[in-house]
Design brief:
With about 650 residues, the chain is α+β, with helices and mostly antiparallel strands.
């Protein structure tokens, strides 16, 4: 268990080798790049070193284009996805193939162009269909829709709501101009469509009369043909567009097998964008570029080997204590303990000068989870889920740690289920009773049970709480002593060890340790406060806060017993409900539904309560948070896994 020691890196390289330098750093994946802040503190250097430009915006735009092309293929040529499929693997040299990148990027551009054409066609189709719908009511009119009329007469196209009295409309038009004629063209549940033939010189009066009668005018500017002819022309256009759409769609579908190549290109461009982003953190002149960064101490040797192949100068140094808040944190643990990264990532990484809690937390977290869940059936499910996921999907990062955590938690759950005799609650005895009411198989063999040994489980939970709290205090004492803070350890942790252990020993007639603890508590307050009044005030506060704090923290561990009991009882309730029917099939259905709900509830509930015990009761004894994650320039892929090679 450790927080990896970091080295500060400074590099000055020949400008022509900037890209080679960044490629080497990407391949190594062990350097977090930042601007050369210390160099810029020198006014002369700051005046010479200008920000680099590495085409970051272009790289991100290219990445977005490829992602858009992937979505086009998913929309028009969706591939069958396996439920549990691992990501394809590719060698690093193949991944960094620039020719393949440009070829597949050109395909992505073509797919996006086809998609744009399809969208334009779709928009045009919508427009034409809307125009056809607007022409339908006038299809019976055997006259041009422009309503040109003659030298003395004009034709007005009108519409009126379905509830309008057309006789009243005709009368209103007649009053405006007796030399007018209203002719109904069509009607439906929504409107009446009609034409008005009137004298051209009276058209304005007729239009005003129509408006007062609640009618509107229909206009088809530029439509010199009849409605029927207009509809036919638009339907021919729709047929042509449909043919174009079919042809383009077929071309897109034909590229369906290229989806894996596009996803690979998306990962390539993501790496290119990350490299460009890191390059733009550099500063340079016409001849050189300068950078700073952080590198884990174990990787210094191989980094020096890579830098030695370039024309550059470099320097490593240890960070100063005042720089610790800015030093990135990388945790180094064994494979199983790495699963605890899920917890520290959810909470907060430890500070660079703090303590890595993962190895300390690991046995407690797995133990507590098994105690709370405590069922062989649920444990087997967790083990199966964990194994199947790790063998098929092969999740990485946080998902991989979570699956490892599920596997280990399942093992612990199974072990404590075997100790308490739980297999989906009392599923097997209840099933036996439904099949044969006279069966003698009434309970599973067990060492203890949640219902019969509740008090013993509660005491055991509190004892485990004391062990974990004392473990945290021991870590704090060791860390403080290493940092030369022995008095703080003496008056904070060692004092309360004497008091808490002394309270237990006093029942055995040995008050010496309690007296020593009380003396240390008094002395500690006066030493720390450095005044009589401050010491007295601090003493009362320390006694109250210490006693209530420690006992409330210890009582928090009673949730181990509570969740074990709750999960067991819920499973038994559903099993009993199923058994009451007396039918084996119905019993199995009800029991499976109930146990599925109980499994899902406790899978999350036990995790949350276990997490709470770690971060609230354990971490507050020694944990210093606030660390910033180490984020090296590296190949970080979404769709493929990289097989590292020597380049």
């Amino acid at each position: 268990m450790s927080i990896v020691r970091m080295k500060k890196l400074r590099v000055i390289a020949i400008r022509d080798q900037r890209d080679d330098l960044m490629r080497a750093l990407v391949h190594l994946g062990c350097v977090q790049v930042h601007e050369p802040d210390e160099m810029l503190l020198d006014p002369d250097a700051a005046a010479l070193l200008r920000p680099e430009r590495a085409g970051l915006m272009n790289a991100r735009n290219r990445q977005a284009e490829v992602q858009s092309a992937i979505k086009v293929l998913e929309r028009y040529a969706p591939a069958k996805k396996k439920l549990l499929a691992s990501r394809p693997e590719i060698r690093e040299t193949e991944f960094l193939d620039d020719e393949a990148l440009e070829r597949d990027y050109a395909l992505a551009q073509q797919l996006n162009d086809w998609d744009s054409q399809l969208k334009r066609i779709t928009a045009e189709e919508s427009r034409l269909r809307a125009e056809i719908e607007s022409l339908r009511p006038w299809e019976a009119l055997d006259a041009p829709l422009s309503g040109a009329g003659t030298k003395t007469c004009c034709v007005l196209l009108g519409t009126a709501p379905a509830e309008t009295d057309m006789v009243a409309v005709a009368e209103a038009v007649d009053q405006a101009c007796q030399e007018s004629e209203v002719m109904l063209v069509s009607e439906d549940e929504q409107q009446h469509c009609f034409i008005v033939i009137t004298l051209r010189q009276e058209a304005d009066r007729v239009e005003e009369a129509l408006k007062e009668a609640g009618c509107g005018q229909a206009a088809f500017p530029g439509e010199t043909c009849t409605a029927s002819e207009g509809i036919d022309a638009r339907e021919r256009q729709l047929a042509e567009l449909a043919a174009q759409k079919t042809d383009i769609t077929a071309q897109v579908v034909e590229q369906g097998p290229q989806a894996p190549a596009l996803r690979l290109t998306a990962d390539r461009l993501a790496t290119e964008a990350a490299r460009a982003e890191a390059s733009e953190r550099l500063r340079g002149t016409d001849n050189i570029v300068a950078m700073e960064g952080w590198c884990p101490a174990p990787d210094v040797e191989r980094l020096e080997t890579a830098l030695g192949k370039l024309d550059c100068a470099w320097e490593f140094s240890d960070p100063d204590p005042e720089e610790y808040p800015d030093v990135p944190v990388k945790l180094q643990n064994k494979k199983l303990v790495q699963s605890m990264n899920v917890i520290t990532d959810m909470y907060s990484l430890p500070a660079y000068d703090g303590v890595d809690p993962n190895a300390l937390m690991f046995p407690f977290f797995i133990l507590f989870y098994g105690i709370m869940f405590a069922d062989m059936g649920y444990g087997l499910l967790m083990i199966l889920i964990g194994i199947i996921a790790k063998k098929t999907v092969k999740p990485r990062g946080g998902a991989g740690h979570l699956m490892t955590l599920m596997l280990l938690g399942g093992i612990s759950t199974f072990v404590f289920g075997a100790l308490t005799g739980g297999f989906f609650g009392d599923f097997l005895p209840q099933l036996a009773a439904v099949i044969n009411p006279d069966t003698t198989f009434t309970e599973m063999p067990s060492l203890f049970t949640p219902l019969d040994d509740t008090m013993m489980i509660l005491i055991g939970s509190l004892v485990l709480g004391v062990v974990q709290i004392f473990t945290g205090m021991i870590v704090s004492v060791v860390h403080k002593c290493k940092n030369g803070e022995f008095l703080s350890a003496l008056f904070d942790e060692i004092t309360w060890w004497c008091i808490l252990i002394g309270l237990v020993l006093i029942f055995l007639g040995t008050p010496v340790l309690l007296i020593i603890g009380a003396v240390l508590l008094v002395v500690g307050q006066f030493v720390q406060k450095k005044s009589l009044m401050g010491g007295l005030t601090g003493l009362f506060g320390a006694i109250y806060n210490g006693v209530t704090g420690y006992f409330s923290d210890i009582l928090s561990y009673s949730r181990l017993m509570a969740l074990m009991l709750a999960g067991s009882v819920i499973a038994m309730v559903f099993n009993t409900l199923g058994a009451m029917t007396g039918n084996v099939v119905v019993f199995i259905i009800i029991a499976l539904i109930g146990n599925a709900l109980n499994f899902g509830l406790n899978l999350l509930g036990c995790f949350v309560h276990d997490l709470r015990l770690q971060v609230l009761e354990f971490f507050n004894r020694f944990y210093k948070d606030g660390g910033k994650a180490f984020k090296p320039l590296a190949v970080n892929t979404k769709y493929v896994d990289i097989i590292k090679e020597e380049i």
